[in-house]
Amino acid sequence: MTLDLLHTGTALDKAQVTCVLVHGRGQSPEAMLDHVVRHLPLDGVAWVLPRAPGGSWYAARAIDPLTDATLAELSTALDGLARIIGQVRLQSARPVVLAGFSQGACLSLEHAFTGHDPVEAVLAFTGCRVGQPADARPRALPRSLPVYLSGGDADPWIPVSAFAEAAAELGTQGAALRADLFPGRGHEVSPPERAMLAAVLTALAQDRPVTLEAPR
Q: What is the C-alpha separation between 100 and 44, in angstroms, rounded?
């Protein structure tokens, strides 16, 4: 699937780092511009924001058991995301960060677990694995991949149990993981989460290791 893209920031062939930023259910690239990109006036960053057809990447809730229909929708979305990362790689030899919010965070995690088209870091703002632990899900996460996972204790879409399951699976698969759970935070990308993304992008743009040490 070829996805419609919104590009902003530095041109890909001149950027020091690229961020592929994936929106949530019922949202849009423009929403990610408002809630994330415009809060991070960073030099040298190419922003690539894909648009989900119909406003969502798959119809089910992330915590629902996987069905054939969800697997088909998820496969289509992951194929589109992999194509984007491949296109970015063709235009730039610099690092690529994959970030997403809510359903976009879940899709970003699922991409990482496929092991295909790896990126230099993944940031999943309010995310979890798609499906249930008993489902046949990919578990080919690249070892030592820097991953930031966040959630809220009363989030209406991603319960704490799903957040914790995702953190445990990332840990057992060897991710360089930081996980933050924010009490009372709304279903949103908060300032500490944006600060983490800024820290990751800045480190990679400057060819420094990703340490995930931004203040909470």
A: 20
